[in-house]
Amino acid sequence: MSLNSVVESVTSRIIERSKTSRRRYLTLMERNREKGADRSRLTCGNLAHAVAASSAADKQELVFEQRPNLGIITTYNDMLSAHEPYGRYPEQMKVFAREVGATAQVAGGAPAMCDGVTQGQEGMDLSLFSRDVIAQSTAVGLSHAMYDGVALLGICDKIVPGLLMGALRFGHLPGMLIPSGPMTSGLPNKEKVRVRQLYVQGKIGKDELMKAEMASYHSEGTCTFYGTANTNQMMAEFLGLMMPDSSFIPVDTPLRQAMTRAGVHRLVEISNKGKDPRPMAEVVNEKAIVNAIVGLMATGGSTNHTIHIPAVARAAGIIVNWEDFSDLSAVVPTLCKVYPSGPSDVNKFNEVGGLPTVIAELSDAGLLHRDAPTISENGLEDYAKRALMGNDKNVVYTPAKPSSDPEILRGAKEPFHPVGGIQLLQGNLGRGVYKSSAVADNLLTIEAPARVFQSQTAVKEAQKAGELHRDVVVVVIGQGPRGNGMPELHNLIPSLGVELDQGFKVALVTDGRLSGASGKVPAVVHVGPEAQVDGPLAKVRDGDVIRVCARTGKLEALVDEKEWAARTPTKPHRATAGTGRELFALMREVAPSAEEGASPMLFMMDRELEEIGDDVEKGTEV
Ligand SMILES: O=C(O)C(=O)C[C@H](O)[C@H](O)COP(=O)(O)O
């Protein structure tokens, strides 16, 4: 089928909008290639430092034979279950690289936060900004000019976007994300939620809750719900930056190992010294970004990606906004119901067809740019194939099959919803993002009096005191990037879920974020402009009737216009000290809105690049 006209027109307007910034980006990457980070330009002293600790064989290849050298950026730590397997990866990857006459070095490490560990804690206030730290760490690693290609080891929430934002500033280099796979399914996610709600109601004790949590989070590997980490994997495949069908192969299996090996071999091939160089700057173009947004809509992925995709795009000089998301959402059907949108987890989703089936369906329906460049040889069509173990322990690919379970994954002709799983809501309260894929039909419109809070703790206390035992729109302000760094407020979900289950109409409206794992509670998140900069949420008062309607796309306070205009915005209380939060003051000071990607680093970068304009050399030579 030919390309959908809305996909086409949204892409055209992104290209038009990004004309100047993209041109400047590509010019700068070209300049990097010609004069920047490359081993051939290092002095003997520089190079000797870089290989001092290498084996004699690697020294020979790196210095005298000029073989391809891969730089590995690792975000390993063994507290984060998804990243624990990466401890073993660099040594294995070096062996895989040698098999094809290349070398690999660990170029650097970057931090990796677990949002599961920091959920509801002060540490969560560092989470979104850690993405910039990861991007900068990636740049520091790659600044050593030793590499012909980049392997990015990261999976979880801020880590993949951060790695991409950093690596894309070295976009003259080819790059690939290498995932390590989900953990086996433990206690079903739905059951975990049920037990949590029993705890909130005081019906079970802490020991029982702890048992359930540990039965859910029980081993190495990525969490099995379709939250931000797994949406990252989807995004990376749709961007063409990961090996096809590599997202959801279970951790620590022969196929996972074969996939990592195939990935390293392919990365050598596409490296700047390989036979088919594919620089990241060319792979991540406007079409690839649109494909990633289409993937987000069709799978009902994490709301966090309405912040991450704009930020990743911006790092490549591409400007997207929520209007683009909204227009694409109107034509992309929801094909998946994976937890929190349905009861099944990513392992089950993968068994019944997984991403290859989704990509095949969307591609056949004309909803994807089939000509977007990818790291895989034949472009996007390779991503519509299933990866299997071949007889010789190599990965082999076969065409994707239709879904084997229509309760989890459907074709584009008989979707769960004719529109995408994420919507834009707007009105006199600003504009925010709403994940409709997980919300029951009867809750898509909620009109109820507001209760305004300035912290998660205050909401939980009010719920405990029975104050939310009614129809209510819970408004939590001061949670945006400039307020307190924009934490996820997922800890509110059990408390609000209890009220919802009792038949009350409850919604959440906030300038903060929610976890990708949040589902059934209707929530408008990332509302901007945020209260900290006097956005309209700061004008809401207890008792104002708020309308949250996913059917009409409205987010409104039904307050007399004159009265509304006369109100003074509340200055939210800011908790900005303790647990290292004070170190991030600079970031809070300059953070742009969520819609712009909420990256202080990119905001300041753009400001400086604007001064340089088209004269790239002006910014590089003294
Ligand atoms: O996906 C995201 O955005 C996350 O933040 C993942 C976190 O690990 C969740 O907050 C865990 O949530 P539960 O499933 O309720 O335990």
UniProtKB/TrEMBL annotation:
<dbReference type="InterPro" id="IPR037237">
    <property type="entry name" value="IlvD/EDD_N"/>
</dbReference>
<feature type="domain" description="Dihydroxy-acid/6-phosphogluconate dehydratase N-terminal">
    <location>
        <begin position="67"/>
        <end position="382"/>
    </location>
</feature>
<keyword id="KW-0456">Lyase</keyword>
<dbReference type="InterPro" id="IPR042096">
    <property type="entry name" value="Dihydro-acid_dehy_C"/>
</dbReference>
<dbReference type="Pfam" id="PF24877">
    <property type="entry name" value="ILV_EDD_C"/>
</dbReference>
<protein>
    <recommendedName>
        <fullName>Phosphogluconate dehydratase</fullName>
        <ecNumber>4.2.1.12</ecNumber>
    </recommendedName>
</protein>
<dbReference type="Pfam" id="PF00920">
    <property type="entry name" value="ILVD_EDD_N"/>
</dbReference>
<keyword id="KW-0311">Gluconate utilization</keyword>
<keyword id="KW-0411">Iron-sulfur</keyword>
<feature type="domain" description="Dihydroxy-acid/6-phosphogluconate dehydratase C-terminal">
    <location>
        <begin position="407"/>
        <end position="598"/>
    </location>
</feature>
<keyword id="KW-0479">Metal-binding</keyword>
<keyword id="KW-0119">Carbohydrate metabolism</keyword>
<comment type="similarity">
    <text>Belongs to the IlvD/Edd family.</text>
</comment>
<keyword id="KW-0004">4Fe-4S</keyword>
<dbReference type="InterPro" id="IPR056740">
    <property type="entry name" value="ILV_EDD_C"/>
</dbReference>
<dbReference type="InterPro" id="IPR004786">
    <property type="entry name" value="6-phosphgluc_deHydtase"/>
</dbReference>
<dbReference type="InterPro" id="IPR020558">
    <property type="entry name" value="DiOHA_6PGluconate_deHydtase_CS"/>
</dbReference>
<dbReference type="InterPro" id="IPR000581">
    <property type="entry name" value="ILV_EDD_N"/>
</dbReference>
<keyword id="KW-0408">Iron</keyword>
